[in-house]
Amino acid sequence: MGSQALSTTVEEHFQRGVLCKINGQYEEAERELKRVLAEEPLHAAAYRELGLVYGFTGLFDESIEALKRAVELDPSDLGARNDLALTYAMLGMMDEARVEFETVLEMDPTNAVALRNIVYFRSSPAAE
Question: Which of 122, 119, 82 is nearest to 101 (CA)?
Fold first, then answer.
């Protein structure tokens, strides 16, 4: 019981990282999420959260790479796809953003985030 009580699980590191991100403690969030990925390199949600942390701190190349990795590991995670699309859009990568939003809508035609944003990437009703 002694060593188990002191050890921190991957899930605890993940939750701590998310909480730090929410609270704007980005350095600590990055540390916690990197701990998760050191233990579980295929943890898609940790890549997503790390991508958001990088985006919030202006590390846009790193943000894109982490979000792309999250989508690669869990292609069905529409939240990660939307985050990637929004990051692309914020960086002026409009073609990439449009493709991600369209992919989300193919998977879920009622996805509110994608529906709200795709209008900015369709030039005319004929484009649909």
Answer: 82
- The per-residue pLDDT for range 1-30, each reduced to its tens digit, is 333 444 579 999 999 999 999 999 999 999
**pLDDT 10s digits, 47-65:** 999 999 999 999 999 999 9
Q: Is residue 50 part of a domain?
A: yes
Q: How far apart are CA 54 and CA 35, in angstroms?
A: 16
Whole-angstrom Cα distance, residue 45 to residue 42? 9
User: Please, are residues 20 and 28 in contact by the beta-carbon 8 Å criterion?
Assistant: yes
- If asked whether residues 8 and 57 sit together in one domain, one would say yes
State whether 56 and 88 are in the same domain.
Answer: no
